[in-house]
Amino acid sequence: MTNILVLHGPNLNLLGTRERSIYGHVSLEAIDRELVAAAGEGVEIRTIQSNHEGKLIDEIHHGRMWADGILMNPGAFTHYSYAIRDAVAGVAIPTVEVHLSNVHSREAFRHRSVIAPVCIGQISGFGWRSYLLGLEGLLSYISENRTD
After folding, report:
1. How far apart are CA 64 and CA 21, in angstroms?
2. Considering the entire predicted model, what is its pTM?
3. 83 CB burial (10 A radius; 0-12, 13-18, 19+)
4. Which of 8, 13, 78, 99 minimizes the number of CB atoms within 10 Å of its CB?
């Protein structure tokens, strides 16, 4: 069994209604359902959404006990949360950062992620499918690097 922690950061609970021209029409609940379906047998997906930095950090820390990988959309925390960055680095769980929009084609402050350097990869710009692409990459990475 492979266990994946999916973390959705601030304001992602508003997906489907928030700035649809940027973030699309798909709800967070629909994305979570798609992830579970894409994961298939042998993969457990646990999803958490929080608008609070400390809650996300607590979940990353708790993941040390059970998660084989983390798929995370840190939202705005991407650009300034050294605390989330340090949590990801500290637990040493393979992590993929995902974003719905192409952050590199948006405002300049969105071009830099302080979290990406401690992740195995970053996917952005494919709308809700960024999560599926990130999951595919994460599961492949885990499979190729599994030592048990």
Report:
1. 37
2. 0.93
3. middle
4. 13
- How far is the C-alpha of 145 from the C-alpha of 148, rounded, in Å? 9
- Token pair 């692409």 is found at 133
Q: Tokens in use for 13? A: 């609970």
Tokens standing for residue 89: 């680095």
In eight-state DSSP terms, residue 58 is H
On the question of pLDDT at 139 being above 90, the answer is yes
Decide the pairing of beta strands 121-124 and 2-8. unpaired
Angstrom distance (rounded) from CA 9 to CA 15? 11
SS3 42: coil
For residues 96 and 80, the answer to whether their CB atoms sit within 8 Å is no
In the numeric block, which tokens belong to residue 147? 């030592």
For the chain, first and last CA: distance in Å? 11
Which domains are seen in the chain, by residue range? 2-145 (3.40.50.9100)
**pLDDT surpassing 80 at residue 104:** no
Q: What are phi and psi of 114, to 5 degrees?
A: -85, -10
Catalytic (active-site) positions: 23, 99
Report whether 4 contacts 138 (CB < 8 A): yes
